Amino acid sequence: MTRHVLKTDGAWVELRDVEDLRAKDRKAIDAVITAQIHVDLDGNVEAGPALVEGIKNAAPEAVAAQLVSSWEIPYLPDLRIPRLDPDALGELKLADYDRLMELIEPALKLLMPN
Fold it and tell me: For residues 36 and 91, what is the distance between their CA atoms, to the nearest angstrom?
């Protein structure tokens, strides 16, 4: 585990090491992405910009949820980690969110190479 400083004073996040990721982590991420895919009553997959946008947004947050092991967010003292609260990432200030997304980029590339 490695601790990283976020943009807000006193804010930090501790991330699992990329080398420690397991197959179950990839499966959890795949499940989040699969949930973005909608099938109509005839069995047709709804494709298009909305699907692409949904996956583009869901994938990094799913990876972050698997990587964040602990954090301290001074302006959100009771915020649980994303694995325990799926809405937690949405509460971060944009600068902290963007920094976290930068930090998870190597794992995102490993788990989703294409």
Answer: 21
C-alpha to C-alpha distances, 12 to 2, 60, 98, 108, nearest whole angstrom:
10, 18, 13, 20
Q: Which residues contact 28 (CB under 8 A, 6 or more apart)?
A: 62, 65, 66
User: Region 74-102: what's the mean pLDDT?
Assistant: 96
**The predicted structure's pLDDT at residue 102:** 97
Confidence of residue 3 (pLDDT cuts 50, 70, 90): very high
CA distance linking residue 106 with residue 42, whole number of Å:
39
96 or 39, which is more confident?
96
Could you tell me where the DSSP H helices lie in 15-112? 23-34, 49-67, 94-111
Contact 15, 4 (CB under 8 A): yes
Q: What pTM was estimated for this model as a whole?
A: 0.81
